[in-house]
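A.,

Following up on our hallway conversation. Structure tokens first:
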């Protein structure tokens, strides 16, 4: 297995930041940094993550762009393994981790991703661009791509949530919901923290 990091934001091409993120996730396989998106373009990637599976001999046998199709990916891998040994004992596909990953699950489209700095190329910096971010959204969960070190105070529908300790660039979970819901969100980062985006995941109806 080989991973390729094609960054969405500038810090994603920094070797030290990528190494810290991989260590935090427990990733042990080799990961290349595609800082200029050369491999991304060569393989025609259309979203994160992009999955590619090659059979013996180097023929592309499976690919998928974006989240989902986890069971299908496992089944494709097992099909390739059985080409090498049809009798080998393989485990059943991993059970879905989220309701939206269930086979045949119906999901609701979440609110669009928000780039508070004006685009994906510029972050919103607390203290320079304002003191707080106020958003309304409809989704199954909310997340923020943050950079810097400090604390993020979170208010959901007028109630304070546990503040987040921000230690380096990463995607941080803000709120999880049992299904697709509508909420009002207020973020108050300590001065200097950079907010690159606030994104939302699909939820079940």
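Then the amino acids I'd put at each of the 205 positions:
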């Amino acid at each position: 297995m080989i991973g390729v990091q094609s960054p969405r934001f500038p810090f994603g091409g920094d070797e030290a930041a990528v190494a810290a993120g991989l260590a935090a996730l427990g990733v042990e396989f080799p990961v290349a940094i595609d800082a200029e998106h050369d491999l991304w373009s060569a393989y025609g990637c259309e979203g994160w993550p992009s999955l590619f599976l090659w059979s013996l001999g180097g023929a592309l046998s499976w690919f998928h762009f974006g989240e989902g199709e986890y069971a299908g990916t496992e089944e494709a891998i097992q099909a390739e393994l059985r080409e090498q040994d049809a009798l080998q004992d393989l485990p059943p596909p991993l059970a879905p981790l989220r309701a939206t990953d269930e086979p045949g699950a119906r999901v609701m489209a979440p609110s669009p991703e928000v780039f508070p700095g004006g685009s994906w190329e510029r972050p919103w910096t607390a203290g320079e661009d304002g003191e707080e971010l106020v958003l309304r959204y409809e989704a199954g969960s909310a997340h923020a791509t943050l950079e810097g070190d400090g604390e993020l105070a979170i208010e959901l529908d007028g109630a304070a949530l546990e503040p987040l300790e921000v230690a380096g660039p990463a995607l941080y979970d803000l709120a999880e919901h049992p299904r697709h819901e509508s909420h009002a969100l207020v973020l108050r980062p300590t001065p200097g923290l950079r907010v690159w985006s606030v994104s939302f995941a699909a939820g079940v109806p």
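The longest strand covers residues 170-189. Curious whether your intuition agrees with the design.

B.
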